[in-house]
Specification:
260 residues, mainly alpha, 9 helices, 80% helix, elongated
Length: 260
């Protein structure tokens, strides 16, 4: 599925929707002769089919909506984790400003290196689905630098305690950002969605419509909407891949503030 996430929306979206609508219309065309043979009592057929279509539509619509909301929540969770990490990183940068020289300069350089590593190396690794990101070694170096601070009085002890607390919060936020790489819908959910879309096309094909054009228009419009929802859901399913994804913009803005 890499082609799906790597292709631009101007290509992937029309291609996906056209194939989805074409498949639904093909099912309608294939089923029309069969329905005309077995629907010998149109009134009873329409009454039973109305119950089935209505019931299925409710359940499938609820399922599709809940899954879309779940995927969007995963996306917002990943974005919130990245934003929280930059906030902790900025607080750590400000907290090290008052440290003795040259320790403050070294820590500032390490923090800037960390932000660059996240932008240039972590994010490409996350797009590949990797959780072992290169910035881990920089975090270890920052921790070593903090350990070099030897407080001489109560004020410096309190300062070191606050820095360590901020560093721990930063590490927790960083872990949440990396763990978001694994957020995705289970394959079983996608199987249920595709089976549901197929059943929906079958039920639309079961409707006895005299005009083929009207039948295809009805099936195509419904397939168009379902296809769009499924496309957006699939595009957001991996928080760091696709056109609707979390980017390292927060880290870029933070690094720009430090180096301007």
């Amino acid at each position: 599925m890499n082609w799906f996430y790597e292709a631009p929306d101007s290509i992937a979206l029309p291609l996906f929707v056209v194939l989805f609508v074409a498949g639904s219309c093909a099912i309608v065309i294939a089923m029309r002769p069969l329905i005309r043979r077995i629907a010998t009592t149109p009134a009873e057929w329409d009454r039973v089919l109305g119950y089935v279509v209505g019931t299925f539509g409710v359940f499938f619509g609820i399922l599709l909506g809940l899954i879309a909301v779940s995927v969007y929540n995963d996306y917002t969770t990943a974005h919130s984790s990245a934003l929280d990490e930059t906030s902790r990183l900025g607080a750590l940068y400000r907290g090290t400003t008052s440290l003795p020289s040259p320790l403050d300069t070294r820590l500032h350089e390490e923090l800037q290196t960390y932000a660059r590593t996240v932008i240039e190396e972590d994010w490409p690794a996350q797009r590949r689905g990797e959780v072992d990101v290169p910035s881990t070694r920089v975090v270890d170096e920052i921790e070593v630098r903090l350990a070099e601070f030897d407080p001489q009085d109560l004020r410096e002890q309190a300062q070191l305690s606050q820095l360590l607390s901020t560093f721990d919060s930063f590490v927790e936020s960083r872990r949440a950002r990396i763990d978001a790489v694994t957020l995705q819908l289970p394959d079983l959910f996608w199987l249920v969605l595709w089976v549901g879309a197929f059943i929906n096309a079958l039920l639309i094909g079961c409707i006895d419509v005299k005009s083929l054009r009207l039948h295809l228009l009805m099936a195509g419009l419904l397939a168009l909407f379902i296809g769009l929802v499924m496309f957006v859901t699939a595009d957001m399913d991996h928080p760091y891949i696709g056109s609707i994804s979390v980017d390292p913009g927060d880290f870029s803005r933070l690094l720009h503030q430090w180096t301007r």
